[in-house]
Description:
Layout: H1 15-23, H2 30-40, H3 47-59, E1 61-64, H4 72-83, E2 97-100, H5 105-114, E3 122-127, H6 137-149, E4 154-158, H7 161-165, H8 169-183, E5 188-192, H9 201-213, E6 218-220, H10 232-249, E7 254-256, H11 264-277, E8 290-292, H12 295-308
Parallel strand pairs: 1-2, 1-8, 2-3, 3-4, 4-5, 5-6, 6-7
Helix pairs in contact: 2-10, 3-11, 3-12, 4-5, 6-8, 9-10, 10-11
Amino acid sequence: MPTSAPALADVTASDSTLRRFLHGLPGVDAVGLEARAASLGTRSIKTTAKAYAIDLAISMVDLTTLEGADTPGKVRALGAKAAHPDPTDRTTPTTAAVCVYPDMVAVAKEAIIAAGKAPDVKVASVATAFPAGRAALDVKLADVRDAVAAGADEIDMVIDRGAFLAGKYLKVYDEIVAVKEACGASARLKVIFETGELSTYDNIRRASWLGMLAGADFIKTSTGKVAVNATPANTLLMLEAVRDFRAQTGVQVGVKPAGGIRTTKDAIKFLVLVNETAGEDWLDNHWFRFGASSLLNDLLMQRQKLATGRYSGPDYVTVD
């Protein structure tokens, strides 16, 4: 069962109590939120701090391929890259995880084991009828169980946005609880809100608290499959939520912005958001991740530039 403080014990007793709690959360000052996110994004860091930030960002990447054309060969190559992002420099950190569809979990797991990097590199799998989430609950739970049985260390589920937007909060809560139980003791659960479809910052705040009340190990911005994905503002809002949730309950929850983060400059902006909002306790890949496919290549190029003073040629990193 999800963990919460005594003050929150009765919040999920019924649809009405849950709605009262979620709609009782402070309203979001959109102008203030965006201004703070923009202000934090202008912070500059020195070269030594930049080297540390790049390695930290690499270690936080969920290297992802979620395409209909994914093949075992592509997933094996991605697993090898996650384990040794820069084969010419073994001081390069591994990525946090490889994220794939459930039918590719076993292939990814084998690749990481073959590279000698299990359990440093986790295998994450999207589930619950990703990305739309339009399936019956028993189908979603079967999806999760299949992925966990194949060796998934982490499950990235999508919430039923239609139910959430219709105000059926308890339905969404119960579904997250059921998925968490299907993960068992071996897999951590990331709950994806698809913030680009939630319309308002108030809804993002409510979804964040709803996911955490239901037992999410991570809350995640997006699937990467819609027009609006992770932004500094929506990530800042979610970081505030996990900070406040821990202050109230003692339970720490991770945050994963996903989609649209492509450059080292962008990644460092997000790390500043983490440090200045949630604090240093979240500056670890157990509590913060980047959902990305192309970000790693730029991080590797910038890392090599810091080390040698020049950029390598276009063939320095693999094209995913």
